[in-house]
Every structure is written in C-alpha cells, then in structure tokens.
Write a structure and sequence with these properties.
This protein is of the alpha/beta class and 345 residues long. Helices cover 46% and strands 16% of the residues. It has one domain (6-344): Luciferase-like domain (TIM Barrel, Alpha-Beta Barrel). The chain is globular, with a radius of gyration of 19 Å.
Length: 345
C-alpha cells in the first residue's frame, strides 16, 4: 500500500441518553463528544470525524465549530467531517471555516464532502432536494479550486461567480480533502479527477462489493496525473466481551436510529433477525474484539484501503458505552487487526 494503514473514528453526534435511558440535552451530547475525542487522542488513534445533520436525533449541525473546540484539547488527532454537506452550503464559507480550523489545530484539519441524503438541510436552507446533484457538482468544483490557495475564477448556476478572488485565511499546509462515495462508481472517478482522497461509506451489505470502486479510483488517479492517495472505508459497530453481548447491547440503539430513518423514508424497519444477519454477513462490525478485528482485517485486505474509520456511536447510547467502545477499538481491536494482516502478508 502507498500509505500506512491508520485507524480513525466517526460519529454523527447522535443525541445520547443517561444511565436510566432518558435523553440528555443536545448541549451535553456536544460536550461529551469533546471528551470522546480527547480519549481517542490519548489512545493514539489517527482521526476523528463528525457528521452534519439538521434534525432532532443528532446534536451536531456545525461539525467544524465542534472540531475547533476539540482542537484545543487534543494534540495529534486529525479532525474531520463525515460529511460536510456541500450541496446546501457556500463553498467559500466552508473553505474559510476549515482554513481557520487548519490554523487552530496546527494542520490537522480534514474535510469530507458529500451531497447529503437527508432532506431536512435542503428545506432548512431553502434548496430543492431535486437539485442536490447539480448543487453538489458545481460547488465541489469551486471548493476544490479554493483549496489550492490561489486566486479563483469560477462561474456556475447555483451561486454568484467568483473572479480572480483570493479567499482568507491562507493555509500554511493543505487541508486534507476527502470525497465521500456511497454507491455511485462515477463518484469515485470524480474524486480522482479532483485529486481528493476516497472515503467509502458502507452501511449495509458486504463491503467487498466496493473493491471495483477502489480500483477504478486508483486507475483514474493515474490517468489524471495524481499521485496515489489514501483510501478509507467507514463502518458502524459495537464491541463487547462476546458476540452475543455486543449484539444485545447494540440492537436497541441501532433500531432507534436506523429503524426510525427507514420508517421516515417509507421503508420497513430492519427486524432483529435481519440485523443479526447484517452483523454476520454485512457491514456492521459488532461482536467481541476477535470477531470485529477479523471482520475489519477482511475488509481492509479485500478493498486494499489505507484507513478504517469505525462509527462508534449509533442512536441513543450512553457516554459510558461510547467511551468503552472507543477504548475497546483502540486498545484491543486495532492491534489484533494489525497482527492478522501481518500474519496474512
């Protein structure tokens, strides 16, 4: 691999609960996320990424602001998003915020851009969800130019043109630019053309089916004259002493989050039997440290990725459970994955 294998964490900032199962405030959820990131940094993990949502079951609507706070209490942890919804934001303002984070963190800022699959943000900011593809396609082109720290000239249909304009603050080192891909092979090619890192979001089904995307992306990088770049895969999960304990602990939170979203979209919520099947055969990394490590190692080896991002939170979980999930991942699962891959080499 052209880059060393690294391990990160993802969170969508799901509104959490206390020990009795009652929801805590979104403000407390945000403060707790700072402590989760601090632990990740102390345990030597590579990256910490926060999603952007605009609905009541997620507390994080401004991930870059929260990451700026995290930057002040961490030293090495790379700080990114999962994802920034570029379709409903202005690329110039996004650049300015992340350039500020880059300065504050001493060069640890990352941004993962995405089109956005939730409708709330489109309605909130006055955009038509039917325009999502056009909005994103135009804005990501402008954003990629802004990252070059050169005067920008750009025009399109979704915002006013920019003519020979510099944008500030200028960065001392480049902001890490990642492009989220969840199901479109054309998006992998687009990421390569823009010179962005590829971030695969796999939330269901066997992750191995994305191997062709990774190869297409790397082939396209060469065609477009770019050096090979880091490729990451994102996967949700939960780690406990045994597989059964992990399944029983994770299922209620998973159902409360993913089940709710499925019902909102007019689909049948996943039952527990289907959930267990997804754990055994699909994209959920749920089980004992041995089970989760073996599954991550399989994914990393088959896809030939350089980074695995573990989504350690899902639905209404407690701070105690999330901190334990982070610690189990960093101290037990990650070393096992490295050992498994080394033994198979």
């Amino acid at each position: 691999m052209p880059h060393p294998l690294v391990f990160g964490l993802d969170s969508f900032g799901d509104t959490a609960t206390d020990a009795t199962g009652r929801p805590i405030s979104q403000a407390q959820t945000i403060r707790d996320i700072v402590e989760q990131a601090r632990l990740a940094d102390e345990l030597g993990l590579y990256g910490f990424s926060l999603g952007e949502h605009h609905r009541d079951d997620f507390a994080v609507s401004a991930p870059d602001t929260l990451l700026a706070g995290i930057a002040t209490v961490t030293r090495k942890l790379r700080l990114g998003t999962a994802v920034t919804i570029l379709s409903t934001d202005d690329p110039v303002r996004v650049y300015e915020r992340f350039a500020t984070l880059q300065a504050l963190s001493g060069g640890r800022a990352e941004i993962t851009v995405g089109r956005g699959s939730y409708l709330e943000g489109f309605h909130l900011f006055g955009f038509d969800p039917n325009d999502a593809f056009r909005l994103f396609d135009e804005r990501v082109e402008l954003f990629a130019q802004l990252l070059e720290n050169q005067p920008v000239t750009w025009s399109g249909e979704t915002r006013s043109p920019v003519t020979n304009q510099r944008v500030y603050p200028q960065t001392e080192t480049p902001i890490t630019f990642r492009y989220a891909v969840g199901g479109s092979p054309e998006s992998a090619i687009r990421a390569a053309r823009l010179g962005a890192q590829l971030s695969l979001s796999v939330i269901s089904g066997d992750p191995i089916r994305f191997s062709a995307y990774v190869q297409s992306y790397r082939d396209a990088l060469r065609r477009f004259g770019h050096q090979l770049k880091q490729v990451s895969v994102h996967g949700p999960g939960y780690i406990a002493s045994t597989d059964e304990e992990a399944i029983d602990a994770y299922w209620p939170a998973y159902d409360a989050s993913y089940g709710k979203i499925s019902r909102e979209r007019g689909k049948s919520a996943t039952g527990k039997d289907a959930f267990v099947k997804e754990v055994r055969e699909g994209a959920l990394y749920v089980g004992s440290p041995q089970t989760v490590a073996a599954k991550i190692a399989r994914t990393v080896d088959a896809l030939k990725v350089n980074r695995f991002d573990f989504k350690y939170s899902a639905g209404p979980m407690t701070q105690k459970h999330m901190l334990a999930n982070i610690e189990n991942y960093a101290t037990d699962v990650v070393p096992r994955v490295r050992q498994l891959l080394l033994a198979a080499a």
